[in-house]
UniProtKB/TrEMBL annotation:
Source species: Ganoderma sinense ZZ0214-1
Predominant subcellular localization, coarse grouping: membrane
GO cellular component, one term: membrane
Compositionally biased tracts (Basic and acidic residues): 24-39
Full protein name: Transporter
Region (Disordered): 1-39
């Protein structure tokens, strides 16, 4: 099918064109059809003509203009291909994602990677298996979009590494607490299911309506429809996809392996050549924790795609760029004026430091029961953060507070409509979204299924929090933080559904838990399962429910795919984690790690649990060194108010009203503190690509934008993910042996990859 503008149009086959051509000789009234056929002979299809030049003005209209509402309810869903590939890819992606968790490279398993592999294997199964006789039940026709979507949901769900697995690994590595395998697996599964139960109750609010369009999923759906729908236009789109996919596949290995300088090109750094620390801090961006990348451009799509320049609406991108622009000023000024007393520590790091600037010895201040030993604090001292990391945590908490008020002010109408009469407990009748209307022919998942899932998972989670006669987290705390996370899920869900942007809540939850469980670092770390993980598992479920709605996958099939992916992922997450932890314990505990294994993600949970769990009152109460980190949440509550008032008081349509409506304070606040992590060479490339896509192409080339913009994103993401996967095992050490490329000017031995910082190489 072609790309439509909201209404379903019939597919145009080659036979259909031939019939139209002959009929024009008999009926002059069909001459316009013949003209379109004649046009198609020169490379323009009938369906291509149906894509008009109308500019997409409202962000949510993308879902109506780019994605077809067509559906064939006769397509089979639960087939041998669905089960075989769904289970197999779920196991594969969960193992791969767990391996990536313990690697020095910051990589993840992309949903587009799962989509492409599933398509190749699914079409191969159809081609290789007989279709006659009893084989028809095993091979019931071509690999279809509904089978494909179910497999993608299963595999991507399994590839999302559960926070519970990371917390269980931290307990093992840093506290010598080894959970029973069955208890650990049930803990992982239950922590996910709580979020899924909450998601089911929010469908009327964050799945069904048009405004909940999840921008980051448009490219996924666009690719699925292009691969499976017929018509000459979609044949051209498939060809276009594979050309772009191949091009990025052939290119991406160059900046990733032999020529890493291309990941962060900075003229200023090339001129300075690593001589000045200030230049490195502000302009460096090529190596992890090097600098914040002012005027640094990258050519690696693996990094550029982190900014979603082809997918995020322009408003979202501009607000993020405003935040980063302020971040260059705020981070640099705070560090060099010794804010948070961090001038003598590293510029960028997420570790804890002692009074002398070295690594903090947490074992020296904990009792054998892993609680704070107050008698040892005077001799060891309090831990310290780097200035940039402390500022970043403040900004994340600013963002969370601003997000709550932003949603209440700007989305009150939608909230009251969904919750005012408790109508979220039943099917909504006034949702006019065409994708939702097309789904009404299928049986919906009853709300009581989700309620049973929520209550059952909560009970299991409470039971699994009790280990060997002691509570890792008390039952009342599990319930408390689940409720808090459920309310926050509404806010971050609204933001993600309408902007594609994801709010971070981990730091706020850590601080809150530090005051709820003072002196108990293990409990503070365990709160992440219910205060942090629950909200994001809810968001993942909402996104997949929307994916099912876009592709017309029956709701009960979507529910089953999510459950199956979670069960398989929980089992393989745990078994692979135990194998890695047992065989590489020394490397995972080491602050630096090795070229093959690193525990940097797990160490982050441990550092937060020690600083906030053991020293919450000493570091985060009013007047203490980092009290502003906690109070930032309350300060952030006020950020959206001036802009909302300006919009209400200004003359409708005036520039004041438009600017006030455009500003998104949660996004700006977070991006002020977004830079002091990992590498930053991609952001200025994102600015250029983002404006070319979401402004120039969207307003000057609307036909191309509707047909190819999101398909381009899918092709670039897919090709770069596949080559990254190959490189990870071939040369980056995922298979156990890393192969370094010989040093040269573009891959220096004694400088960072952008030649901005001296190294020990």
């Amino acid at each position: 099918m072609g790309v439509h503008t909201g209404s379903a149009l019939p597919a145009t086959s080659e036979l259909g064109h031939a019939e139209s051509l002959n009929s024009t000789e008999k009926d002059p009234d069909l001459q316009d059809v013949k003209e379109k056929v004649d046009v198609e002979s020169f490379g323009v299809s009938h369906e291509e003509e149906d894509v008009d030049e109308t500019i997409i003005k409202n962000d949510e209209d993308v879902a109506l203009e780019v994605i077809s509402t067509d559906d064939d309810p006769t397509l089979p869903v639960l087939t041998l291909r669905t089960l075989f590939l769904g289970i197999g890819l779920s196991a594969f992606t969960s193992v791969l994602a767990t391996i990536y968790t313990f690697k020095p490279q910051n990589a993840s398993v992309s949903q587009l990677f799962c989509l492409i592999i599933a398509y190749v294997l699914g079409t191969a199964m159809h081609s290789m298996m007989p279709t006659t006789g009893y084989w028809h039940y095993l091979n019931p026709g071509p690999f279809n979009i509904k089978e494909h979507t179910a497999i993608v949901i299963m595999a991507s769900t399994a590839s999302t590494v559960a926070v519970a697995m990371e917390v269980i690994a931290a307990l093992d590595l840093f506290y010598n607490i080894k959970l029973n395998p069955a208890l650990a697996i049930f803990q992982i599964f239950a922590s996910q299911m709580i979020g899924y139960g909450i998601a089911g109750l929010l469908r009327n609010l964050l799945v069904y309506p048009t405004y909940a369009f999840y921008p980051t999923y448009i490219s996924v759906v666009n690719l699925l429809q292009s691969l499976h729908f017929g018509g000459i236009l979609n044949h051209k789109k498939r060809r276009y996809f594979w050309i772009v996919f191949t091009a990025i596949f052939l290119w991406e290995w160059i900046p990733q392996y032999p020529f890493p300088l291309l990941t962060a090109i900075s003229i200023i750094c090339l001129v300075d050549n690593g001589r000045h620390t200030f230049v490195r801090n502000l302009f460096g961006a090529g190596s992890s924790n090097e600098g914040i990348g002012l005027f640094s451009f990258g050519t690696s799509w693996t990094l550029i795609t982190q900014g979603n320049p082809l997918v995020w609406p322009l408003r979202t991108q501009v607000n993020s760029y405003i935040g980063m622009a302020l971040g260059y000023i705020v981070l640099t000024a705070c560090y060099y004026t010794n804010v948070f007393n961090g001038r003598d520590i590293l510029w960028m790091s997420q570790s804890l430091f002692n009074n002398e600037g070295g690594s903090y010895n947490q074992s020296a201040i904990l009792t054998p029961q892993n609680t704070l030993d107050s008698s040892k604090v005077d001799s060891v001292g309090l831990p310290r953060y780097t200035t940039t990391y402390a500022i970043s945590q403040m900004c994340y908490n600013f963002s969370l507070g601003a997000a709550i008020v932003h949603v209440l002010l700007w989305n009150w109408r939608e909230l009251s409509r969904a919750f005012g009469k408790m109508r979220f407990m039943q099917s909504s009748q006034d949702i006019d979204d065409p994708h939702y209307q097309a789904m009404k022919k299928y049986k919906e998942v009853p709300q009581w299924w989700y309620l049973v899932l929520l209550v059952g998972a909560l009970v299991i989670g409470i039971g699994c929090s009790y280990n060997k006669g002691d509570w890792l987290l008390p039952a009342w705390s599990v319930i408390l933080f689940t409720i808090i996370s459920g309310f926050i899920a509404i806010c971050i869900g609204f933001i993600a559904a309408t902007t594609g942007f994801s709010i971070q809540i981990k730091h706020a939850m850590n601080i809150l838990s530090a005051f709820v469980h003072p002196g108990q670092p293990v409990a503070v770390m365990y709160v992440n399962l219910y205060g942090n993980s629950t909200a994001y598992q809810c968001l993942y479920m909402l996104q997949d429910l929307k994916l099912g709605q876009y592709t017309k996958l029956p709701p009960r099939a979507t529910f089953a795919a999510q459950m199956a992916g979670s069960i398989i992922g929980s089992i393989f997450n745990y078994t692979m984690m135990i194998s890695i932890v047992n065989n590489n314990r020394a490397a995972l505990i080491d602050p630096v790690g090795t070229r093959v294994w690193s525990g940097w993600i797990i160490q982050g949970y441990n550092s937060s649990s020690v600083a906030m769990g053991a020293f919450g009152k000493e570091l985060f109460t009013y007047g203490k060194p980092y009290y502003l980190i906690g109070f930032a949440f309350f300060i952030g509550l006020s950020f959206p108010v001036p802009f909302w008032l300006a919009h209400k008081l200004a003359k409708p349509g005036s520039w004041v009203a438009r600017v006030a409506e455009f500003v998104n304070t949660p996004i700006i606040s977070l991006y002020i503190g977004y830079l002091p992590y990992s590498v930053n060479g991609q952001w200025w490339s994102c600015v250029v690509i983002g404006f070319l896509s979401q402004w120039w192409a969207r307003t000057r080339r609307p036909k191309w934008f509707k047909k190819y913009n999101y398909l381009t994103s899918a092709a670039l993401d897919g090709g770069s993910q596949v080559i990254l996967f190959i490189l990870s095992f071939a040369v980056f050490g995922a298979s156990g042996n890393a192969v370094e490329f010989p040093n040269w000017w573009g891959n220096p031995a004694n400088l960072s990859v952008d030649r901005c910082a001296l190294t020990d190489g």
